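Quick review question:
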């Protein structure tokens, strides 16, 4: 039970991702939110440009959702231990990629959404880049002397 405190952010974020996969966050609904803001910021935007910008924003959201999800998962697998381990990193990456695939399957059953393997790949890419960022962060911390390396830090 003491490890739950490390997992609750990942569980909450998984719920956020699930919610973002519903009809309420389909392209039509997000366009009705973003288009007025974009038109206010740049009045000269055409409808075609608005559609393109909305598409880009939605794809950036995919990447960002899973970047954040990976960080929370890594924290959960780490469970308060020190350092960085391959097993934690790979476990978090595997769970993020698996959840991404399940999220696309969920979208296949939502009338206003479509399932796309490319979206799952984009999600997984966000998690992969997060894994690289977390690894670099620990590498930099260790080399700067902020966190002394232990035998457990490099194990696995």
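Suggested answer, residue by residue:
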């Amino acid at each position: 039970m003491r490890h739950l405190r490390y997992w609750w952010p990942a569980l909450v974020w998984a719920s956020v991702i699930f919610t973002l996969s519903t009809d309420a966050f389909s392209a039509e609904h997000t366009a009705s939110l973003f288009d007025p803001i974009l038109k206010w910021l740049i009045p000269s935007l055409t409808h075609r440009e608005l559609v393109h910008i909305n598409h880009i924003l939605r794809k950036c959201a995919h990447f960002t959702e899973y970047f954040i999800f990976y960080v929370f998962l890594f924290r959960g697998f780490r469970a308060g231990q020190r350092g960085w381990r391959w097993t934690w990193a790979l476990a978090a990456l595997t769970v993020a990629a698996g959840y991404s695939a399940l999220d696309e399957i969920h979208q296949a059953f939502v009338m206003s959404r479509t399932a796309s393997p490319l979206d799952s790949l984009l999600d997984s890419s966000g998690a992969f880049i997060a894994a690289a960022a977390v690894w670099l962060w620990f590498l930099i911390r260790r080399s700067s002397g902020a966190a002394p390396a232990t035998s457990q830090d490099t194990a696995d």
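Why it works: The CA atoms of residues 31 and 51 lie 8 Å apart. Residues 47-78 form the longest helix (32 residues).
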